[in-house]
Design a protein that fits this description.
This protein is of the alpha/beta class and 242 residues long. The protein has eight helices and six strands, in the order E-H-H-E-H-E-H-H-H-E-H-H-E-E. The chain has a domain of 164 residues: Phosphoglycerate mutase-like (Rossmann fold, 3-Layer(aba) Sandwich).
């Protein structure tokens, strides 16, 4: 059960992207939201607005699908000018040389078990990108401010957890201790890794844990930024028929 306490955080996995729909490994690639994804994000914003949620600061990854989701939500809750930081440490797990490949086709090539380990495994890295591959983030102006040694060629969920945990300690926990309400739009694997860190999930638990697209998670914290509990945003209750 979610404890009623503040400050609080709302986490949301970006809404459906074109590569979600096509069943591709996405990682740090930048496909846009689908029309369904836009509708998901707007619906999430309307539900948050109906529940009375307001925020003091927002965070998203540097990937367009997360920032677009955040912007759509902010529009629906009437806070389009909310201060937002886009942090690379909130990016999706980097899928290395798998990025852009269709998961079903890879299962036919290497077997469904291997694809499952790449997708869900905690310590299983994907095939790594060569440094000269144009998909390597070192070639992206978007990451020019990030030390090259920190930019991944591919990541396990364990490595994703390390970077998102660092982001949380440095960027979010101090704001929670100051009493701010935070909205974060990120990615499925990144949020799985973050909840593992905050909740002390086991490897077995996190490997079977899935977060749906565009579904807000409400997270309560005490005044020392210690987690008190989380739940998905309840669906709005409908008035009963007379």
């Amino acid at each position: 059960m979610l404890h009623t306490c503040y400050p609080h955080v709302v986490l949301v996995r970006h809404a459906q992207s074109e590569w979600n729909r096509e069943g591709r490994f996405t990682g740090w690639a930048n496909p846009p939201l689908t029309a369904q994804g836009v509708a998901e994000a707007r619906a999430a914003g309307r539900r948050l607005a109906a529940a009375g949620h307001r925020f003091d600061h927002g965070f998203s990854s540097r990937l367009g699908r997360a920032r677009h989701t955040l912007d759509l939500i902010l529009g629906e809750i009437g806070q389009p000018a909310l201060p937002v930081n886009s942090d690379w440490r909130l990016n999706e797990r980097h899928y290395g040389a798998l990025q852009g490949r269709v998961r079903e086709e890879e299962a036919g090539r290497v077997g469904a078990d291997q694809v499952l380990r790449w997708r869900r495994g905690y310590a299983d890295p994907p095939p790594l990108l060569p440094m000269d591959d144009p998909r390597h983030p070192a070639h992206e102006p978007l990451y020019a401010d990030v030390p090259r040694r920190l930019l991944p060629r591919g990541e396990s969920l364990a490595q994703t957890r390390a970077r998102v945990a660092g982001f949380w300690r440095e960027a979010v926990a101090p704001r929670l201790e100051a009493g701010e309400r935070i909205l974060i739009a990120s990615h499925g694997n990144t949020l799985r890794a973050l909840l593992m860190e905050l909740e002390g999930m086991s490897i077995k638990q996190v490997e079977s844990f899935e977060i749906p697209t565009g579904e807000p998670i409400l997270y309560a914290f005490d005044s020392k930024a210690r987690p008190m509990g989380w739940c998905y945003l309840p669906e709005a209750t409908q008035p009963s028929a007379a």
